[in-house]
Hints:
The model has no long low-confidence stretch (mean pLDDT 83). This protein has helices spanning 3-36, 38-54, 61-74, 78-113, 121-151, 155-178, 183-189, 192-208, 226-250, 253-274, 280-289, 293-329, 341-356, 358-367, 374-395, 397-424, 428-446, 459-484, 486-506. The two termini are 14 Å apart. The chain is globular. It is 82% helix and 0% strand. It is built from 19 helices and no strands.
Amino acid sequence: xxxxxxxxxxxxxxxxxxxxxxxxxxxxxxxxxxxxxxxxxxxxxxxxxxxxxxxxxxxxxxxxxxxxxxxxxxxxxxxxxxxxxxxxxxxxxxxxxxxxxxxxxxxxxxxxxxxxxxxxxxxxxxxxxxxxxxxxxxxxxxxxxxxxxxxxxxxxxxxxxxxxxxxxxxxxxxxxxxxxxxxxxxxxxxxxxxxxxxxxxxxxxxxxxxxxxxxxxxxxxxxxxxxxxxxxxxxxxxxxxxxxxxxxxxxxxxxxxxxxxxxxxxxxxxxxxxxxxxxxxxxxxxxxxxxxxxxxxxxxxxxxxxxxxxxxxxxxxxxxxxxxxxxxxxxxxxxxxxxxxxxxxxxxxxxxxxxxxxxxxxxxxxxxxxxxxxxxxxxxxxxxxxxxxxxxxxxxxxxxxxxxxxxxxxxxxxxxxxxxxxxxxxxxxxxxxxxxxxxxxxxxxxxxxxxxxxxxxxxxxxxxxxxxxxxxxxxxxxxxxxxxxxxxxxxxxxxxxxxxxxxxxxx
Length: 507
């Protein structure tokens, strides 16, 4: 199977998965707000973020395992693959025990600091354990299969299994909430959905990787990059979770709920964008391992071109439509103020800055440059935490988001110079010029709406204006792209057209 076809197969299934996640992401918080209130919604968001941080006990293991599997998979070395998988399995089990201990500790400590009329301290403890159940299963059964499928460029299997889980989980929460069940009962019974995902991954992996010998001597040295990959994963967790944790410490659960509603939209958007990156780390990793320099440079230039066009389109439209959507989404919810235009602006700015470095960050993973970028990663994390805490103390959510923006801006600049010098050996100037053009596109699209007031009172109005805005944004970006990026766009189009023709000939 060609790399382009593999990429499209993974992308399509990821697209379906992300669409399901986005729909679920809109449904579940709305259910929490309507049936249980902003404080419960904020509580669940806060607990989930702490649990996300606890996943750091395996930080770097996934990335190191995937990277170490590129070579034996390319060489079809079954013994080498087995040795790495067994080593990963052993590490995951040890990490799992630490994870369980941290969740249990949180269940004892968290209720001492958070008080709700709706839930007793014991109920909060049980809720924490229920929300941590997904992690239990991940560490002890699934993680080794997930890393193997990722390295083998079969992320479509993970997407299918995860889609089944999300659908079942959403249905369970929706039905039980409609029946006005206790929030504890809702999340305890939702654990059932986890087993469907587990079953699919286990059956597929055992059938298609039956040659793996779990009695093989573990190759622990192959995972030495784990400790270097740790820092990259810490950074990713900081960007995902620091605002929620800081908001829990510096504000209150209602403001955490406000953050979670805006973040719900941004998570959905990042999910859509991940479609275009899904499986590419493994693809580029394979190219780097084979030392195909010309292929690397050509493919990377084309990917960066298209990805920057996509994020400019997505975030310019989001800048215009985010606050109107949140206002419609929270109609009837009166226990917190969800009209926060400045917070909406900072969310979009942070998202845009975060995704500017996605092409370069992907190559850091593909090339296994965890150790080489360790100190830059630490610096970025410190900027997010320190400035987020200082500004957040005086400005609340606004200050926390400013800290995140500064953190991403630093990393954008750092990677813009690092990747050309150490991986692609291309000029950084082409990336810089491309970014400047996209910022100009962004301003051209957004600026007129500073003067145009959109009259949006329901979802139908919102969709109408979103479509008009999207058409305008697409026109601006395509005109600029055809003027300055004609060759790259033509090359990508020809590659896709060639693949379609080959597929027709096969059929």
